[in-house]
């Protein structure tokens, strides 16, 4: 385990017990058994550490949801969306609970910006899922449905995180599919229109080809010789020259999807190639 990973893992225990504000860098270094110098080699500040933790947690949720929405059959997408979400909450329940609790506290602008960024990405995936599942028939109410689904996600997540209930992922997923279908089939008074969305929602811009190429180069440089590295090289060539079929590109993305150092670039490239 790298020093950076150690700090992130150990600090999460302290943050969960004491909160972000009440936990000092000194407490973190003592708990990790490292010097302050070692901490500041990994992170410039406690805020940077917190943002790194949020990055890690939100990237996992965002990537898992996006992959599920893109790669399940139309009839099963809604169930597996909820299943993926609550499985992720079980896996990362300690940090999810901390994040929900800390949202009631004053947060700095960088932290708020980071959370809004991932919130917008998740909204995009939910919208894609709604359109895939219900088609044009829900066009007038699709944004209301997106926000209703988010309300179900948040309320049920809170229910399980802050109570002693056992989370049966299969049952809650089936139950929420039923509720979502009822809403989709019977809502008739839209509140959130396209114009309203545009007035308060900032669009998340996809990463440019140049930025993706730079990120690919960094990832390639950091990896030892492996299937993942070869796949990244092919993907970079495809990005710059479009040399391969989309079937090959999809195969290369599958090769890197589960590698811990490649998961985010895999997600970004899937969005770029629209796979």
UniProtKB/TrEMBL annotation:
SUPFAM superfamilies documented for this protein: Homeodomain-like (SSF46689)
What protein name applies here?
A: TetR/AcrR family transcriptional regulator
Task: Tell me the superkingdom of the source.
Answer: Bacteria
Organism phylogeny: Bacteria, Bacillati, Bacillota, Bacilli, Bacillales
Name the DNA-binding segment ranges: 24-43
Q: Which Pfam families match?
A: TetR_N
Give the source species.
Ornithinibacillus xuwenensis
| Keyword flag Membrane | no
Annotated keywords: DNA-binding, Repressor
Stretch forming the signal peptide: none
List residues of the HTH tetR-type domain. Answer: 1-61
Give the matching InterPro entries.
DNA-bd_HTH_TetR-type_CS, Homeodomain-like_sf, HTH-type_Tx_Regulator, HTH_TetR
């Amino acid at each position: 385990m790298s020093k950076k990973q150690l700090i992130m893992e150990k600090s999460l225990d302290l943050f969960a017990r004491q909160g972000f504000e009440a936990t000092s860098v000194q407490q973190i270094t003592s708990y990790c058994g490292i010097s302050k110098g070692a901490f500041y080699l990994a992170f410039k500040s406690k805020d940077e550490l917190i943002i790194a933790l949020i990055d890690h947690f939100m990237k996992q949720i965002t990537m898992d949801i996006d992959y599920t929405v893109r790669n399940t059959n139309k009839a099963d997408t809604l169930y597996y969306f909820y299943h993926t979400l609550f499985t992720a909450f079980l896996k990362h329940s300690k940090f999810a609970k901390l994040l929900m609790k800390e949202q009631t506290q004053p947060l700095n602008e960088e932290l708020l910006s980071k959370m809004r960024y991932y919130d917008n990405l998740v909204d995009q995936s939910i919208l894609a899922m709604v359109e895939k599942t219900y088609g044009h028939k829900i066009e007038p109410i699709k944004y209301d449905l997106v926000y209703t689904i988010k309300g179900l996600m948040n309320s049920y997540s809170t229910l399980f995180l802050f109570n002693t209930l056992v989370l049966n992922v299969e049952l809650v997923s089936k139950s929420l599919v039923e509720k979502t279908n009822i809403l989709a089939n019977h809502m008739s008074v839209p509140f959130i229109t396209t114009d309203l969305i545009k007035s308060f929602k900032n669009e998340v811009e996809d990463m440019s080809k140049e930025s993706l190429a730079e990120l690919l180069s960094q990832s390639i440089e950091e990896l030892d010789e492996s299937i993942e590295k070869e796949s990244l090289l092919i993907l970079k060539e495809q990005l710059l020259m479009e040399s391969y079929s989309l079937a090959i590109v999809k195969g290369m993305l599958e090769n890197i999807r589960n590698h811990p150092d490649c998961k985010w670039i895999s997600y970004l490239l899937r969005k770029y190639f629209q796979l």
